[in-house]
UniProtKB/TrEMBL annotation:
Annotated S-adenosyl-L-methionine binding sites: Y42, G67, C68, S69, D120, I121, N135, R202
Pfam families membership: Methyltransf_25
Function recorded in the entry: Catalyzes the conversion of S-adenosyl-L-methionine (SAM) to carboxy-S-adenosyl-L-methionine (Cx-SAM).
Keyword Transferase carried by entry: yes
Keywords attached to this entry: S-adenosyl-L-methionine, Transferase
Name of the protein in its database record: Carboxy-S-adenosyl-L-methionine synthase
CDD domains with a match to the protein in the record: AdoMet_MTases (cd02440)
Amino acid sequence: MSDASYRDAIFTTPLDRVASFSFDEQVVACFPDMVRRSIPGYGQILGMLGVLAERHLRHGGHVYDLGCSLGAVGLALAARLPPEAFTLTGIDLSPAMVERARATLASECPEHRIIIEQGDIRTIDYRPASLIVLNFTLQFLDPADRDALLGRLYSVLEPGGVLILSEKIVAEDEAENAWLVERYHDFKRANGYSDLEISQKRTALENVLRPDSLATHHARLAGLGFERVTTWFQYLNFASMIAFKARPGGHPHDA
Ligand SMILES: C[S@@+](CC[C@H](N)C(=O)[O-])C[C@H]1O[C@@H](n2cnc3c(N)ncnc32)[C@H](O)[C@@H]1O
Ligand SMILES: O=C(O)C(=O)C[C@]1(C(=O)O)C=C[C@@H](O)C=C1
């Protein structure tokens, strides 16, 4: 992204009380740097989203980018697909994110039909879509709300459509999970975060980012009716899945 972004220094100094993490102005100002240094494979996932859209998005179809933050998914699709290939609606709860996403998209890809709206993805009205992306968003919803949201998304997805879900995950085996979390902290250290930053961010995310296991995600998506669910990417405790809605009488994953 070409917009000005500051280095993430939010948790560099010791805090008397670590407040719960929120997507406020301070986070928005350093968000591109934060996600690049905090989400293993973030850039690779975005790059592949364009490739997956080329394959699975119906020509001229509608895309939802739910929890769009600064619009990185829209930018990734616009980098690979021409303006006539899709329309996209990005939704985010944070007004600061929405304001900056609109400015970025207007300057980076003015020809593409991308709009950004402020709203809660649990309660907005949806229109039919060919591709729905939740790139590290579901993990921030109350677990009690996840089934209902994904059920609504399944119903608005066109037959033959796909849902792409990227999430921080928890491994069901305790020892495996501990190893993944430790190596994730090593990953953060290698990206310049101190032990203090890592531990204060961990506190801030408690009860805010609540990861599910891959088995929970797969069972939930299959239970809602998706014909096939594939984990196409995993890097430590971060993963991305693609879920296919069947096309009556056809193969669910036809391009
Ligand atoms: C980790 S960020 C998503 C990153 C982004 N998808 C990307 O690829 O760069 C999570 C986003 O979800 C948004 N969010 C959280 N709960 C939401 C809700 N109920 N409705 C809409 N957006 C929500 C947050 O404001 C935040 O911008
Ligand atoms: O789990 C962590 O420690 C993270 O920093 C992960 C994570 C995420 O997965 O969204 C949390 C908050 C920010 O949005 C960026 C990265």
